[in-house]
Amino acid sequence: MKIRAVIVEDSRLARNELKELIKLHDDLELLGEAGNVDDGVELIETQSPDLLFLDINMPEKDGFDLLEMLDDVPITVFTTAYDEYAIKSFEYNALDYLLKPVSNKRFDMALEKIRSKMASKEEAISTTKKLTDSSQIFIKDGESCWLVKVGDISLFEIVGNYTRVYFENKKPLLYKSLNQVEEKLPEDSFFRANRQQIINTNYIKNVVPWFNGKLKLTLNNGKEVEVSRRQSYIFKDRMSL
């Protein structure tokens, strides 16, 4: 299993050092590199890597800013010359934290964590039982209850820690997170438009170009959904636009 990686690091020397370390491992594939946050975001959105080697200290915007700009965050290993950011890095769910210059031994230790994380993700994907369009889910919101066919749902949307479900003229709350919902949905008919919303592509009425390479969708129920820039690339490819 190839682990597809990118490097976002403003120092050319540090990028070169990481590239040499990556070359020592056959299961690592470098997709690209970037020297600043904006280029890094574009690289990640277009390449969808499994792994991100990310410098924290960069001019104008730092590594933490980059993570907050992403809809889908890869496995992240921070690289920095300063150990003062260690605690904060783990608040952002970084898998590991490498102090520069990075030794072969320390890099190998991080790689073992990465391999273990990747294996766990693959296992979780393979063991998750997917729903189909004809599957039914039970929703209870207050005193009201529904047994809803998955294919009849047009939109799932984050509301705090819960998920709002749109079907017919109803929009009750489901007491699960959007990520939990996404794991079960059939991938051929549902699409993650952005951090907050998953749409049923069968309910799309209209698609128009939007700002900064994004798309705006109008659903059959009149609801408008803005697709993030990264997801717009994927949507266009999927729908052959």
UniProtKB/TrEMBL annotation:
Q: Which domain of life is it from?
A: Bacteria
Which terms are listed as keywords in the entry?
Phosphoprotein
* Sequence ranges assigned to domain HTH LytTR-type in this UniProt record: 137-241
User: Ranges for the Response regulatory domain?
Assistant: 4-115
SMART domains in UniProt: LytTR, REC
Q: Which residues carry this modification: 4-aspartylphosphate?
A: D55
Keyword Phosphoprotein appears in the UniProt entry: yes
Give one Pfam family. Answer: LytTR
Instruction: Say yes or no: keyword Nuclease present.
Output: no
Q: Which PANTHER family match?
A: STAGE 0 SPORULATION PROTEIN A HOMOLOG, TRANSCRIPTIONAL REGULATOR-RELATED
What is this protein's name?
A: Two component transcriptional regulator, LytTR family
Tell me what organism the protein belongs to: Allomuricauda ruestringensis (strain DSM 13258 / CIP 107369 / LMG 19739 / B1) (Muricauda ruestringensis)
